[in-house]
Amino acid sequence: ALTGSADAVSSERKDDLPMHVLSNTKVGILGGGQLGKMMCQAASCMAIKVLTLDPLEKSPASGLSYCHVVGDFNDGEAVREFAKRCDLVTIEIEHVDAVMLEKLEQQGIDCQPKASTIKIIQDKYLQKYHFSQHGIPLPEFMQIDNIESAERAGSLYGYPLMIKCRRLAYDGRGNAVAHSKEELSSAVAALGGFDRALYVERWTPFVKELSVIVARGRDGCISCYPVVETIHKNNICHIVEAPADVPEKIKELSLDVAQKAVSSLEGAGIFAVELFLTGDGQVLLNEVAPRPHNSGHHTIESCYTSQYEQHLRAVLGLPLGDPSMKTPAAIMYNILGEDEGEPGLRLAHELIGRALKVPGASIHWYDKPDMRKLRKMGHITITGPSMNIVKARLDSMLNKDQSETT
Ligand code: ATP
Ligand code: MG
Ligand code: MG
C-alpha cells in the first residue's frame, strides 16, 4: 500500500507497477535541498519516481521523494551505492564527487548532465577557461597562487578586484572584493587564504544582471526560457523579474550567448546561464549552473512548463515542454533569513502573512532545519497582468506601500 508518511526516510515503496505511462526510469538526484524538493513536486505530478541523496535526514526534499537516502553526495562511496539504486543520476547541486560520477559513467551509469560537465562547472576557474576557449565573452580572469600574483592581477585589471574561490562557491560565499592593493591580503584571508585555490576576475561594472534558463533534451535539441533580470543583495540572488526589461536586441544577444555556452557542455537537463549586461551593450557570461536555478523559480507559476518539469523531461528523454510565459509578468522574491532562529522565523512568518493577502502571490517555504541569516529559506512568486502591477503587489507585500493593490 502507499504510505505517504514523511517518516518513511530511507524506506522504498514496494508497489512497483510493471509499466508507467511516461517512464519506468528511477531518477536519482544528488542533493535534497529546495531545488530537489521542487523537482520532486514536478515529478509527483507525472508520478515519476525520484530518489534523493542528502546528508540531512530532514532535508527539504526528503518528505517528497519516492525514497530519501541519507548520505554525502561528495563522498564517492555514497554516490556509488546510491547510483546502484537508480536508472539515471542527475544533480541539484554541482558540488558532488564528479570524479566518481565519471568512473560510474564508464561502468554504464547514466548521468545527466554528463560528469564531464559537472567537473568543468564545479571548478569556476576551469569553467571560465572552458568558456573562454569556446569564444564565449566573459570578464578577464587569472589564477592567483600567492600575494605576488594577486598584486600582478591587481595592476593588470585595476581595482576593485574580484577574488573568487575556485570550488564550493555559492551565494557569493566564495567571493571577496579588494578595493586596493592594500586590501588584497585581507580579502584573500577572508576566503581562507591561498590554501584554498583562488582566482581573480576583472571587476565588471554591469548595469543589469540577466539570466537565461536553457533546456537541452537527450537528442540535443535546445529550448530557452525568456531572459530574466536578477537583482542581488550581498552577492545573493534576491529578486528576479520576468521578463527582463531590456531591448529586444539585448534579449537576442543574451539567448545567443546562453545557447552557445550550453552547446559547449555535454548532457541533458536544465542549465542556467548568469550574465552581466554592461553599459555599452555587451553581454558577458558570469557563470553557468548545470541544473535548475534560483532565477527559474518563477517558471513554476509563470510558464507553461516549469524548469523542474523541463529538467525531468530533458533527462528522461521525453519531449521538452513549452518554456514560454503564460502570464505577462512575474517577480520572484527570495525569503532570505534576516536573523538567526526564532526572531528570523517571526519576520519570515510576518512576510508570508502579508503575501497570503497579495493577489497572484504563491508561497514556497523550504522547511529547512534551521533559520540562518542570509540563508535562502523560501521564496514568493507574484504574477500579474503587467510588470507595474506585479511591482506594486511586491511593494504591498513588503509593506512599502500601505494602499491595497489588486
Ligand atoms: P551563485 O549563488 O549564483 O552560485 P556564486 O557564489 O557562484 O553565486 P558569483 O555568481 O560568482 O557567486 O557572484 C555573485 C555575484 O557577485 C554576482 O551575481 C554579481 O552580482 C557579483 N559579481 C560576480 N563576479 C563579478 C565581477 N567580475 N564583477 C562584478 N561583480 C561580480
Ligand atoms: Mg555559483
Ligand atoms: Mg552566481
From TrEMBL:
Pathway: Purine metabolism; IMP biosynthesis via de novo pathway; 5-amino-1-(5-phospho-D-ribosyl)imidazole-4-carboxylate from 5-amino-1-(5-phospho-D-ribosyl)imidazole (carboxylase route): step 1/1. GO terms for cellular component: chloroplast. Keywords: ATP-binding, Decarboxylase, Lyase, Nucleotide-binding, Purine biosynthesis. GO terms for biological process: 'de novo' IMP biosynthetic process. One of its GO terms (molecular function) is ATP binding. Residues 128-316 form the ATP-grasp domain. It comes from the Eukaryota. Its EC number is 4.1.1.21. This is phosphoribosylaminoimidazole carboxylase. It comes from Dioscorea zingiberensis. The chain holds residues 59 to 464 of 616 of the full protein.
